[in-house]
Amino acid sequence: MSTDSVLDVLDDRALSGRRESTITRYREVLDRLAADLDKDPLKATHNDLRRYVVAWQADHTPNGAAFVLRHLKAFYRWALEERYITQDPTAGLKLKSQPAPMLTATDVDISKLLAVRGRSQSDVRDRALLYLIVCTGARRSEIGHLTIDDVLLDELLVMIPRSKTVARYVPITQETAIHLRRWLRSRPTKCGNSLWAASDGPALVGRVIARRSCGALSPHSIRRWFATTWLSAGGSETSLARILGWTTSAMAAVYTRATAQQVAHAEYRRVFDGRAHAGG
């Protein structure tokens, strides 16, 4: 059964008792899974799903990871009941316990992170990678899976695929484009189409950030910083959702919960700084 057929299964009468919103969530989760695994979700093994869930947990909030696992389990239970599969690949699959969530990166953290010295090939690559993730706020998996064709330097855009047929285009800064051009000039030529010349792109992203920040930052803390910086500067939640690839702008409140006061203070300054006070 093809991936398209799997998604078509969701329209089957067997799902008629489920709400349309539930079916939509199944579609979103399975679409991302199929794109990540590059295979029919009904052929996914337990190890496939374990690796997928671990990577998702590393790149998203605990609630987001729990959401995905819950819907994967529900779908595969249904697929087993309907005999599309003979064994549930999510059986025994659990989220790893995690320490307290890491705080949002600060402006100082980001400045230190981008202060990459050296001219070696790895230095040039790391500088381009770090500038790209900082200026896009993209997920670790998204940055790690980019190909050369996804980077549109003349347009100052990067194309981030969501599936084989759907992608979002995210602007990049001129400075980021300069570092990417330097990396593309020095990048090994015999290494396929991977932007970072690596077979384990997402893992590489995590290692580079951990090494360059001495373990202080994670890809997700940078993503939180991006959201906080955007809102503090007066950017809209709707546009932020488009840039970060959220399905709803309500995620803004989740990402900036720890820095909500900072955002509120920035809004206050924009509203009242320089305004003449009424009264005598």
Poorly predicted spans? none
Instruction: Quote the distance from N terminus to C terminus.
Output: 76 Å
Q: Can you summarize the main beta sheet? A: 3 strands, antiparallel
Number of helices: 13
Global geometry: globular
Calculate the mean pLDDT score and round it: 83
Radius of gyration: 21 Å
Structural class: mainly alpha
**Helix proportion of residues, in percent?**
40-55%
Please describe the topology of this protein:
Blueprint: H1 3-9, H2 20-37, H3 46-59, H4 62-81, H5 107-114, H6 121-136, H7 140-144, E1 151-152, E2 157-161, E3 167-171, H8 174-186, H9 201-212, H10 219-232, H11 237-244, H12 251-255, H13 260-272
Antiparallel strand pairs: 1-2, 2-3
Helix pairs in contact: 2-4, 6-8, 6-10, 10-13
Describe the overall structure.
Helix 6 (121-136) crosses helix 10. It contains 13 helices and three strands; from the N terminus they run αααααααβββαααααα. By secondary structure, it is mainly α. It has helices at 3-9, 20-37, 46-59, 62-81, 107-114, 121-136, 140-144, 174-186, 201-212, 219-232, 237-244, 251-255, 260-272, and strands spanning 151-152, 157-161, 167-171. A three-stranded antiparallel sheet has the order 1-2-3. The N and C termini lie far apart (76 Å). The protein is globular. Strand 2 (157-161) and strand 3 (167-171) form a beta hairpin.
